[in-house]
Amino acid sequence: QVQLVESGGGLVQPGDSLRLSCVASGLTFSSHAMGWFRQAPGKEREFVAVIDWKNDNTYYSDSVKGRFTISRDNGRNTAYLQLNSQKPDDTAVYYCAAAVTMTRVVAAIPDYWGQGTQVTVSS
């Protein structure tokens, strides 16, 4: 049984930083691309970032490029999303996703989803 468990969300002020974690189990982590999505209240889920299984290729949405960084530790079966210079528009539930290819992640059709972690950016 595959599980993706996110953590690290919380309430932060504009300009603050936060690091989200996604621990995977039940799959060969080092063979899967990992991605992050988010869903704000009243909006559809949107792609945020993806990293390939080799940890040397990343891709970001324009809305977070330059502020967020995706990374992974294959030895710990964990993917990370570093959120810097946060804005109120970053408020959303953040979801982790895994897929056999980066393409499937970017197309929002990953093989597995996590349950999400709430990030709220407010003064």
Spell out the key features of this protein.
single chain; 123 residues; mainly beta; seven-stranded mixed β-sheet; four-stranded antiparallel β-sheet; 1 helix; 11 strands; 48% strand
Intertermini distance: 40 Å
Average pLDDT level: 96
Strand runs, count: 11
> In percent, how much strand structure appears in the residues?
over 45%
* Biggest sheet statistics: 7 strands, mixed
The run of helices and strands is EEEEEEEEEHEE
Unreliable stretches (pLDDT < 50, length at least 5) are none
Structural class: mainly beta
* Count of helix runs: 1
Globular, elongated, flat, extended or rod-shaped: what is the shape?
Answer: globular
Write down the Rg. Answer: 13 Å
Query: Helix content range of the residues, please?
Result: under 10%
Description:
This protein has 123 residues and is mostly beta strands. It is 4% helix and 48% strand. It has one helix and eleven strands, in the order βββββββββαββ. It has one helix spanning 102-106, and strands spanning 3-7, 10-12, 18-25, 33-39, 46-51, 58-60, 68-73, 78-83, 92-99, 112-113, 117-121. Strands 2, 4, 5, 6, 9, 10 and 11 form a seven-stranded mixed sheet that branches. The protein is globular, with a radius of gyration of 13 Å.
